[in-house]
Amino acid sequence: MKNADKYFKIGTLALLIIASVSCKKDKGTDLSNDLLVGTWKMTERIEDEASTMDNCAKSNIFKFNADGTVQSQDWIDDGTGGCKDATPSSINIKWAKTGENKYKYIMSFGGQSEELAFTTQFSESNNKVIITESDEDGVAHITFIRQ
Questions:
Q1: Domains in the chain, please, with CATH?
Q2: Cα–Cα distance, 118 to 102 (Å, whole number)
Q3: What does the alpha-carbon distance between residue 144 and residue 128 come to, in Å, rounded to a whole number?
Q4: 10 Å Cβ neighbour count for 25?
Q5: 26: number of CA atoms within 13 Å, CB side?
Q6: pLDDT tens, 113-130?
Q7: DSSP label at residue 13
Q8: Which InterPro entries does this UniProt record tie to the protein (predicted)?
Q9: How deeply is 144 buried, as exposed, middle or buried, from its count of CB atoms within 10 A (0-12, 13-18, 19+)?
């Protein structure tokens, strides 16, 4: 009886180890529950303490997808008082979480790739976010409202 008990415990332990190894997720970060996932409309952009928002930029939309991709729609002044879509058709934007409230964009355009780190500060029941970006040109604080 002691041998049967011993083999049962060893067998159970082996099954648990096999199950845990075979069910391991990949090492990528699961973004599906991240607060940033969703569609966001830009409402304010401040660069080096000066507002750089115009009427067209107020229509900019960013969609952060759970698969790590970003879809954007960027609007600029068309020179006649109207706005035109300035989103490059060949741009590829991805995003990744790098820490608590820390992220990065990975942008590929015209054979070039660039990474830009940013932090987030959520408010209003996670329906408003301020993204802060820093690079050699300075600091930008961009406010978005969840759509």
A1: 29-146 (2.40.128.20)
A2: 6
A3: 6
A4: 7
A5: 4
A6: 999 999 999 999 999 999
A7: H
A8: Lipocalin-like
A9: buried
Q: Which helix (H) or strand (E) holds 125?
A: none
Residue 96 φ then ψ, to 5°: -145, 150
pLDDT digits (tens, 9 = 90+) for 59-111: 999 999 999 999 999 999 999 989 999 887 778 999 999 999 999 999 998 88
- What is the model's pLDDT at position 28? 55
And the tokens for 79?
A: 């020179």
pTM: predicted TM-score of the whole model, two decimal places: 0.75
Nearest Cα residue to 107 out of 87, 122, 137, 83: 87
- Rounded Cα–Cα distance for residues 60 and 9 (Å): 60
Tokens of 11: 């067998």
pLDDT tens per residue, range 30-55: 899 999 999 999 999 999 889 989 99
Taking the C-alpha atoms of residue 39 and residue 65, their distance in angstroms, rounded to an integer, is 8
